[in-house]
Every structure is written in structure tokens, then in C-alpha cells.
Sequence to fold (342 residues):
Amino acid sequence: MNALNYYGICLIGMVIFTIAYLKIAKALKIHDHPVSRSSHTVVTITGFGLFLPMGLLIYTVCYSYNTLPVLFVVGFLMMVTISFIDDIIFIKHAIRFVFQIFSLILMASVLPFENGFADTLPVVIAVVIFSIGVLNAFNFMDGVNGMLGLNSLVIFLSLWWLNENSFDKEGAHIYYTDSVFLVTCIIGLCMFLFLNFRKKALVFAGDIGSIGIAFIICYMMFSLILKTGNYSYLLLFSVLGVDAGLTVIYKLILRENIFVPHRDFLFKKLAHVAKAPHIRISFIYAMIQLVINVIVIFQPYQKKLSSQLAVMFIIVVLLLATYIGFRNQYTKKRIIRFRDKE
Fold:
């Protein structure tokens, strides 16, 4: 089956899945109930991130050129299974953490290391630790309408473009994954955005969606970096990365639990303190990330690590300055409101 026919089948399959899931989730009451720290105020269907394993199923069954490593698939299925169960019934953080670690080890074991998995153990450990941070950062995005979907769409489109347009010094094409699988994820994300990117979201992706997306992005990102030797590709999700990283540092300084849902991300402050519409916040975040990705993708290739780090440093410093400026503004506003109430 050629790719074009497959995309048609995938789109039809995703539409059927969407209709079926909405009915099943409503009947089984797979809902996200708002609490005091939630970014939404009404009961909403959750767990729509099930489109990821559904897309994997369609890809595996209908596309004969499946090149995904088996251990990556096993790790992914483990990750999304425990996450979907957590969307339905609460699972202790320790249990989820064990599943995350094991799934990420499986993922790291099939990354294209030059010296093999065993000889690069320190790097593997660093990959797993970094990926845990990415998973948990993405996990907090789902509550703001469009935030998870739009930013993930920008990242997946960037990854697809790089897979189709990366070449070495001799002009040979560098493929780090199968573009058809990336397009499968993009189709699923578009279905999710149709239901989520609106004033009143009809669905949330749930843990299965946010963590599943982050898992795929981590694998693709590290595969791309190891294949091309270009570490500046870490900037492809730098907007969320800076927001999440500084928020974690802020909470650690305050000795607060970073795994408990909270409103300390900048995008949540914009929603709850500045009272900006969710879809506007999500759009701005995605557009900033898109601009950065275009710069990273189309800049002249820097072979030297020092040159790559210089590019990363400049962009990250600009993001840090923006983050700190907005955070201070809306933190002060929140303090003033509390004082007014007193």
C-alpha cells in the first residue's frame, strides 16, 4: 500500500475512532472532574489520547513498511496502558514512576548509539532522567485548551520536515525514523485539536495522551540528534522546556512537591491570573515555538558543538528573560489580589 492510500485509511480510521470513543467515554463516564487547581471548570471527557495506540495499530496493520523498533513499541504500550488506567482510576505516583522508568529504558535501548547501549550507559541514564522531566512537563499541559495539541503539532511537523530534508556532507539522505508514522501521529493530533482547541473543550487527552506524546517526541528527538550530531534540535520544544524547567526550580526552592498538579507554570498563570483566553495562550506558545523551530531548521548547519551550544544559549536566554519578566508581573498581581482580599 502506498503512503497516500494509507493516509486516507488512517484518516477514516481516526474519524471512526473519534465517534466511537466519544460515545463509549460518555457511557462509561470517563471524565475529568475539575478541582481547585484545574484549568477547566466543567466535567469533560478525558483519555482521548487513546488515539495514539489506535494510530499505532492502524500503522502496524495497514502499512507494510513498518520500521519501528519492537522495544520502542513495547515501552510505548506499557507507558500508555498505565497512563490510561490512571485516567480512569487513581494510581500511586510510585507505581507510575516505575513504569515510566522501565518504559524509558526500553526506549533508550533502541536509540542509534554509535557504541551500543552497554558502552554508553552514562548517556542512557541522562536520557532517561531528561525524558522523565519531559514526560511530566507535557503531563501538565492538557488542562489549557489547545496547549498540548498545538505545541505537539508544531513539534511533530518539525520532526517530519527534518526526517524528509536532512542530509549529510556527501548529500546522502539521513532518515532517523519513518515519516509515515509521524504523519499518523499528526492526523491523530488534528482530530484531537478539532475537539480540544475551542473555548469549551469537548475532550482532554488525559495522561495517556500527554505522556504518550512526550514519549514519542523523546524517542524521535534523541534519534534525530544521534543521527545528525546536531544538539540544537533540543530547541524544538524549548518554549515548554524553559517554562517547565524554571517552574520546577521555583517549586524546589519552595520545597514543594513537583509531581502534584499546580498552577505555577507561566501558561497557567496567564490563564488564571491574567485571565487570558486558553486558545490565545496556546496559539502564542505554539507560534513562538514555530518561529524558533524555523530558525533551528533553516540555520546553516553548525558542525562544531560550541557553535550549536551558542545558538542554544542565545535562544534559551531570550526565553528565560521573557519567562522571568512575565512571571514576576503576574506573581505580583496575584500577591496584590491576596492583599486586597485581606
